[in-house]
Prior knowledge:
This protein is mostly helical.
Amino acid sequence: MFGFIRRALIEYSRKTDYVRYIRTIPSPKTNSSDKQQSPTVSYLTGSCGLSLDKAISASRFVQIENTEGPDSVLRLLQSHGFTKSNIIRLISKYPKFLLANPEKTLRPKIEFFESLGIVGEDLTKILCSHVNILSRSLEKKILPLFVPNISRLRAEGVPEDHIKRLLIWIPRSLLCRVDLFEEVVNEVKAMGFDPAKKTFILAIRSKAFVSREIWEKRKELLMSYGWSEKQFQLAVVMRPDFMLTSEKKMRKLMDFLLNTASLKPLDVATCPNLFLCSLENKLIPRWSLLKVLMSKGLIKHVNLVCAFVVSNKYFEKKYVTEYEEDFPEITKAYREQTGFKDLVADCET
C-alpha cells in the first residue's frame, strides 16, 4: 500500500512540475522590434520600398535569406518598365514573387504578354492588377487557354486593340476553358453584338463571369422595378458589363434612383452607366447637393441622369465652383460629405 502511495506522489509531482513548466514557457509571439530588425523586413523596406507596416505584413509570407535571387527579380522588373510604385504594389500583393526564378518563370511570362502588344504601362497594369496570373503555369495554363481563345476572337474579326483592352481589363476572362469560351462567343454573337465594336468584348467579359442562372436572377430583379423586356435588352446592348453588378447593389441603386431621386424605369434603362457609379460616394452626394441648390432657387431644370454620370471635373465646375463664393456651407458639405442631412432636411421643411 505504501508503495502505491509513493508511486502516486511521484506521479503527482511529475504532473505538477510539468504544469509549472508549461506556465513558465514564454509567449511565442515575436517581439515587434525583432520583426523590424529581420533581414526580410530590412530588404522589403530598403530594396523594394515597402513601408514598415507593409513589409512586416509581407514578411509573414516570404523569408529572404539570400538577396541574390530577389535582386535579379527587381532588375528584371525595372528593365521592363516597372516603377518603384509598381514594384511596391506588386510585392505588397504577392510577396512570394520575389522568390520566383526570374529567367525560367518570370521572363517567359513577361515576354509572352509583350508579344501580344502588352508593353510599358499596360504591362505593369496587367501584372500589378492581376497578380494571380503570375502564379499560373505558362505552359500548362496560360498558353493552352490564352492562345486559342485569342485566336477565336481574331477569327471573329475583333480588332487587336479591343483584344488588348480585354487582356488589360480582366485577363481571367481569357483563361476560360476553350469549350466554355466558345459557348460565350457564340452566345454574345446570338445577342446581336458586333465583333468590331467595343461592346462585343464588354459582353464577352460579362458572359464569362455571370452564369445563366445569375443573369436571369438579375434580369428578374430589374424587371420587378418596372423594366420591360425591351428596356432590359436596350440596357444590355448599350452597356453589357452593367450585368456584373451584384444583386445587392442593383437593389440599392434602383431603390435610390426610382424612389428617392424620382427617376423613371426607362431613365435608368437608357443609362446603364448608372450601375457603375458608387451610390455612397457619388450618387447620394450629387443628388443631395442638387436638391439643396434647387430648393434655394439657384438651379431649376436639371437632367439628373446626366448630372449623375458626368465627370467629377465637369460636375464641380457646373454645380460646385459656381456657388462656392456665395454659399460656402453648401459646397463645403458636398466636398467633405458632411452636414448634408441637415441641409436636405431644411429643404424638406
